[in-house]
Sequence to fold (229 residues):
Amino acid sequence: GQQVMQIPQYQHVQEGEDFTTYCNSSTTLSNIQWYKQRPGGHPVFLIQLVKSGEVKKQKRLTFQFGEAKKNSSLHITATQTTDVGTYFCAGEGTNAGKSTFGDGTTLTVKP
Amino acid sequence: GAVVSQHPSRVICKSGTSVKIECRSLDFQATTMFWYRQFPKQSLMLMATSNEGSKATYEQGVEKDKFLINHASLTLSTLTVTSAHPEDSSFYICSARGDRASGGETQYFGPGTRLLVL
Fold:
């Protein structure tokens, strides 16, 4: 079945440094979504990418969807302590109508 | 964004009892609801997909007789963990999605239910 791999598993950064998490799917995706989960909380939807090569920005967050629609990345510029949490990607297959989550990248930010 | 509620938020039960978890979409009609399970420091694992008025589709390895899912209306889905055992202790999260034909692509997650089986 469809597999979605996400790296790194953990990332520790100093406040102000940049952060990137990468997501790779074993199959071509219809779309990919990104979520953020704070400790003790539930996943919160950040964005959905649909088009090949798409790039979207939300303030300090930049999301990219690969040309082949099999990989994606989330980049945070100048991290802040409020960015801490686990970032999950979730890829929806072309036939499934359901999304498979990556294992997540847990970001910690040292003030 | 849209609001999805989940009840109860936390439940402790004895081994062998059944527990029902409710998932409600409060301000939109959810044609599809998803049930996930999340163990500590792990990702979300999809258990089943339910469409209003039809039987749920379970993922491989998920026992349909143990995890009963009912999606009786466009705003309510329930997950019943039957004869719960300690290994069923987990964080159960639902998500809801509206009519895709109307552009309702986004999944909105409920706040989750922490189940502890003693």
Observations:
- The mean pLDDT of chain A is 94.
- The radius of gyration of chain A is 13 Å.
- The interface with chain B takes residues 1, 31, 33, 35, 41-45, 48, 88, 90, 97-104, 106 of chain A (CB under 8 Å).
- Residues 28 and 95 of chain A are 10 Å apart (CA to CA).
